[in-house]
Amino acid sequence: MNIYLMLKWTHIMSSVLLVGTGFGSAFYLYFIHRTRNPGAIAEVVRLVVRADFWFTTPAIFIQPLTGYAMLSLSGYPITQNWVLWTFFLYALAGACWLPVVWLQIQMSKIASASARNNVQLPAHYWQYARYWEWLGYPAFIAMLVIYGLMVFKPS
């Protein structure tokens, strides 16, 4: 078996999990928030937190490891502009993701309490939801640009 191709497959699969889980989470939270139903929101946010820990977190570590290994095996210098931009954009996405994880956990606690007490979600839940959404935009854009850099490798 070719080690480079195995690394490439792992890299691609983990990127699919990373971006796919994030996009799926955003999709489900966007639409469940429109219902304003605390019980439904609590369940979806709980599952979003779980998905982040099960899928996104491992992918976040697998991506740079496999990427660096492929760079080493392929002979691409780490100092090429497309590689450096990839590192920068990945760090940007990560800087957005870390507060998002905290926000999701807080949103899950708040929504669970609201559902348990049969009350509407408080204003600070919706403020957290706005922060969560706005942090998602630069992270997703960064990841899409990274995909382009990986495919086209501009010099």
Structure overview:
Helices cover 87% and strands 0% of the residues. It is mainly α. Helix 1 runs antiparallel to helix 2 and helix 3 (81-117) runs antiparallel to helix 4 (123-152). The longest helix has 37 residues, at 38-74. It is elongated, with a radius of gyration of 18 Å. The mean pLDDT is 96.
- Uncertain runs are none
Q: Biggest sheet: strands, sense, closure?
A: none
**Coarse structural class:** mainly alpha
Overall helicity = over 70%
Q: State which percent range the strand residues make up.
A: under 5%
Count of runs of 4 or more consecutive helical residues: 4
Mean pLDDT: 96
How many strands appear in the DSSP assignment? 0
N-to-C series of helices and strands: HHHH
Coarse morphology:
elongated
Q: Radius of gyration over alpha carbons?
A: 18 Å
User: Termini separation (Å)?
Assistant: 30 Å
